[in-house]
C-alpha cells in the first residue's frame, strides 16, 4: 500500500524496514500495528538523504569531539540543531477540545498554542491531529475554524495521524502513541493536559519522559498560558524547562522550602530572604556564636562589679 509506505517514510522510517513489516503483517494491517512492529524491531527514524556514495572518512584532530552528524527528521531545518530551545510536540485534539470547553473542537486554540511557542523562538513545532478531523463537521462532533488545520499543514507544522473506514465504521490509529514517540525521539516537550497513563505503563522509558517533559496549560480569555513551574513548586522554571541547557544560577533565587528551619547554613543553594542582612556563617559557627555571647557578657559584668 503506497499511502502507508509514504506515511512512514514521512515519519523518517526507512522504506526497507516499512516494506518488511508490511510483508509480515499484510498490506491491510493498521498503521498503529505497523508502528508497533517497527518499534519492536528497533527501527529508528533515519535521515532521508542519498547514501549511494559513501562519504570519505573525515580526519579529526586529537582531543577534539567526534563530528558524526545526528539523524535528521523530515522537515527539520538546520537552524533547529543549533537552537537552545527544546522541540515542541502538541497534542492537537487535547488543546482544541480544551479551548472549546470540551464541547467543540476549536482549531483556534491550536493556533494560539503554536503562536505562543513561535514567539518564544522555537523552531521545531509539530501538532498531531487525527485525519478524520478533515471531514465536514457533524452534530455529534462540532468543529470551528477548520481552515486553520489546512494552513498549519501547508506550513509543515500539523501532521494528521491515519484513520480510515472499514464497512462504514471508522478505524482510528492511536494518535497519543505518535505524540509521545516523536517527542521522545526528538528529546522535546509534550504539550497536553493528558497524563498518558496507559503509555506510561507500556514503556518504562516513556514513563520517565512523560513525567519529566509534560507541559500542561490553561486558556485564560483566549490566551494560552502554561505554568511558570511545570514540575511543581520546587522544580525548574518555565524558561529552564523549555531550554536544552537550563540556567543553573536561577536555583539560587528560588526560596528555600525549609525557610528558617534550614540547617544547611551558608551551604544552602536556595534563597533565604531572612538572611539578607546577616553574615553568612556556617551552622557550627552560628551555634558557637549563640553560646559564647551570653558567657562573655556575664564575665564582663562580674569584673565590673569586683573592680573598685
Question: What does it look like?
Answer:
This is ZC12D ribonuclease. Keywords: Endonuclease, Hydrolase, Magnesium, Metal-binding, Nuclease, Zinc, Zinc-finger. It contains 12 helices and 11 strands. It has 3 domains: 1-41; 88-242, Rossmann fold; 250-282, no CATH class. α5 packs across α6 (107-120) and α6 packs parallel to α7. 40% of the residues lie in helices and 11% in strands. A hairpin with a 4-residue loop joins β10 and β11 (224-225). It has a 5-stranded parallel β-sheet with strand order 5-3-1-8-9, with helices on both faces. It has a two-stranded parallel ribbon with strand order 2-4. Strands 6-7 form a two-stranded antiparallel sheet. It is of the alpha/beta class and 308 residues long. Residues 47-55, 59-82 and 299-304 have low confidence and may be disordered. The chain has helices spanning 2-10, 15-25, 31-41, 78-82, 92-99, 107-120, 147-154, 175-186, 197-202, 204-213, 238-241, 283-306, and strands at 88-91, 105-106, 125-130, 143-144, 158-161, 163-166, 169-172, 189-191, 214-215, 218-219, 224-225. It is elongated, with a radius of gyration of 28 Å.
